[in-house]
Amino acid sequence: MVDTRRQIPGTDRVLSEPEVAREVARLGADLVKRAVHEAQRSARDDEIAPGEVVERTLAGLPASASAVRRVLNATGVLLHTNLGRAPLSEAAVDALRHAAGTTDVELDLRTGKRGPRGASVLRALTEEVPAAGAAHVVNNGAAALSLAATALAQDREIVLARGEMVEIGDGFRIPELLTATGARLREVGTTNRVRLDDYRAALGPDTGFILKVHPSNFVISGFTADVPVAALRELDVPVVADIGSGLLRPHPVLPREPDATTSLTDGADLVIASGDKLLGGPQAGLLLGREEIVQRLRRHPLARALRVDKLTLAALEATLRGPRTPVERALRQDPEQLRLRADRLADALAAAGVPATARDSAATVGGGGAPGVELPSAAVELPEHYAAPLRTGEPPVLARLEQGRCLLDLAALAPDDDDLLRRTVLGVR
Ligand SMILES: *Cc1c(COP(=O)(O)O)cnc(C)c1O
């Protein structure tokens, strides 16, 4: 019997192959060695020939030194929380690359002295939202809420309507976050109705602020009433509006979604929003409002613990200043164009023997924005058994399962990705 083990190339020999050595420079030796060991094991188990070890090593390498992988979002949910919410624009990705090294994030290059951190992104925010006297950025919406609660209502009361006591997802409950800061909650109204007088009756010397929370992931319908910011301003205590999704101005496609400009002009003293929802930027918490309040937040000791890094600042500024974001383009795309893409894709797949058909579909915003809103879309329909191999394929494709069918909804996918999607589907057969 021949001992094939002898013929299996050793680790050092595989690593010295020029193609493998290049990957060591890109990914680091540890990750490449892991792939080599895996390939050697396959050769020992006779799954591959000893001569295929180099090839198998290269095939087994990750796309990057991070385990995070790119996933094609074919769910039709524009902001999919499990897929990292908003995909960044090219401009934002480019800004990330520039900011990744040493940068002038906190240096005034003219004077050589320390400069205000992130000054240019704050300027971009107040230019986009002139109704805001000042702006501050923290790590996410939850961080923004906790900073506001700590700085403005510690040992005091936050007045909040019962119908706005929201759980965002994964067990994150806004009321619990607020009380964790040392603020007390003063609940007003019922699940479905609250009146201005309910708020008025709850106010007292202990009131820190009134919090208005956008029910961003559910809809209460029927016998309902809530009190808009424009009415709450009459009560003469600070009004903080957590609008969630990060629209800076009213949006033509989402007329019922609150926006920062309107909330501020209606009389909110402070607006809180996320950066990675409808704004289409990186994870961030935006605080926009009256200068004196924003200054108090900025100077609070907790602000340092919630501070964003230079990468977030760069990507956020590029999102604000740059061209339309992928989220914005997805919101405004023409359903007929989507249907054309679905037809083309389904035809190409069908010609290759895949039982694919094109159909109209309904996409959603998802990720804490515009609950109940359906956006006309188009999809390629496949048998259900395609879903799992697509999800574990390369690149992974996340489809939507609907009535026993696997739908590839195109609303959240850039047209440039259609060809990759087609090749990936062909590859899973
Ligand atoms: C999403 C959301 C939050 C939490 O924001 P994160 O950026 O996820 O921390 C808070 N409030 C509302 C209304 C939201 O929609």
UniProtKB/TrEMBL annotation:
The keyword Ion transport does not apply. InterPro entries: PyrdxlP-dep_Trfase, PyrdxlP-dep_Trfase_major, SelA-like, SelA_trans, SelA_trans_N_dom. Converts seryl-tRNA(Sec) to selenocysteinyl-tRNA(Sec) required for selenoprotein biosynthesis. Residues 5-44 form the L-seryl-tRNA selenium transferase N-terminal domain. Its EC number is 2.9.1.1. Its main location: cytoplasm. Keywords: Cytoplasm, Protein biosynthesis, Pyridoxal phosphate, Selenium, Transferase. One of its GO terms (molecular function) is L-seryl-tRNA(Sec) selenium transferase activity. NCBIfam families: selA. It catalyses: L-seryl-tRNA(Sec) + selenophosphate + H(+) = L-selenocysteinyl-tRNA(Sec) + phosphate. This is L-seryl-tRNA(Sec) selenium transferase. Its cofactor is pyridoxal 5'-phosphate. Pathway: Aminoacyl-tRNA biosynthesis; selenocysteinyl-tRNA(Sec) biosynthesis; selenocysteinyl-tRNA(Sec) from L-seryl-tRNA(Sec) (bacterial route): step 1/1. Transmembrane segments: none annotated. It is found in: Cytoplasm. The modification N6-(pyridoxal phosphate)lysine is found at residue 277. Belongs to the SelA family. PANTHER family: L-SERYL-TRNA(SEC) SELENIUM TRANSFERASE.
